Known about the structure:
By secondary structure, the chain is mostly helical.
Amino acid sequence: MVEVRTNQLRGDIWAIVSAVTTACGMIAAKFVLREINPISFTLWLFGIGSVIILIDAAINRKVKETLRINRQQLLFLFIVALLFAGATFCFFSALKIAQPGTVSFLSRMEMGMIIILAAFFLKERLRWPELVGLVIVALGIFVMRYGASMELSKAIVFISIEAVLIGTAEVLIKSRINWINHRSFIFYRGLFMVGLFFTVASWNNNLMIPKSFENWLILIVAAIFMPYLGRLGYLKAMKDINISRAAIIVQSQPFFATIAALTILGTFPTFKEILGGLIIVGGVVCIKLLERRSKIIPSG
């Protein structure tokens, strides 16, 4: 029982790490997307991310383990990479035309899609603490963006498609979470995505290279935060907790995106954004507190 609780706490922490690093990566991405298109940005982002994970493997003396993979695993990763490629293109296309906070809010649609697909394909059930947390998180998202401008119809369409693709990919990953080690997953997924986006960019003759040294540094930071730490945190979370639980906890991302925007971009959040962010975090904390209480109070 103690081991189960420890694993769950560790999974919750990794999910929060994923939310924080992804939010910071979004702010970094916003800078570079001012200069290059989403296809080129994704190509460089995941290319750098693959190099980073290989360096991490070298430091931990696990290069051979990271590179070791069979044909079935490669095929699985290629399918997942296709889904991620489409989702990532939609996400960064939305981020190019909308503010990070707005995109972060819209991308919460992933939560519903992941939970629905997990319940349908993985037979996962949400327990009552998670349902209460889900309702509170949804309320926080509503408060944070109630009355905000939604004229960016393209961003909404992009994120709607992204939610379906991400939901499908995450359920596939969860079903094979112990089949491929985390470093191999991140490394080969990155390579496949680089190949896919390089093909698309070359075909359309629109491959763009950041011109300033500053943007290259920001790209490296974004790669550390998003495809490396963000994905690594989420994979480790899914290993210890249900995908639906991980998806709910990651809903704290809009709050962290608001804080990151304030710190880095200097944009001050409105009262609604602050209130909504606090409610979102409250919903995430509520999952843990109500779960503990449900175990303490005897049934019947």
